[in-house]
Amino acid sequence: MNNEKYDQVNDETIKLLVDGFYEKVRRHEKLGAIFESMIGTSEEDWRPHLERMYQFWSSIILSTGRYHGNPMQKHMDIPQFEPELFDQWLELFEETAKELHTESIATNYIDKSKRVAESLKLALYYRPERKTP
Ligand code: HEM
Fold first, then answer.
1. Which of 16, 42, 92, 122 would you label with 22, given CA atoms 20 to 30 Å apart?
2. Is the pTM of this model over 0.70?
3. How large is the angle between the packed helices 11-27 and 29-39, nearest 10 degrees?
């Protein structure tokens, strides 16, 4: 088995990261159920989402501008789920990034994922009229 970790990011490593991450997500009881309800179960159902996620991470990490989408709206369209699931999403993402990449690259991915998660959480759960956040 090849245990070498990648110390750079390119289209191939992005694909490995995204495919590996969503394999974990699909096996996760609660996250898997949400994704299944929104996307489906077959490889064909999943192809467009995976392609979009390659573009998304390429834009975020390599600044390629390949992703054109509205993640806020997409997540607002998902039936409400518990905010704690974000921690589990981030945990699986961190695990995958560390399995694949050397530390500084994994850290870069993890920092960016946390930043996007925070803004998604604000969009999904923050209601200014409520006293306690
Ligand atoms: C518990 C947390 C999360 C859940 C349950 C979740 C769920 C989903 C689902 C079900 C979709 C597919 C929507 C569809 O195609 O109909 C989606 C799309 C997406 N998610 Fe998440 N997500 C979570 C967190 C995140 C985080 C933290 C990021 C970024 C770091 C992210 C980035 C995206 C992007 C870029 C898309 C594609 C939007 C598009 O179609 O353009 N998600 N998410």
1. 122
2. yes
3. 110
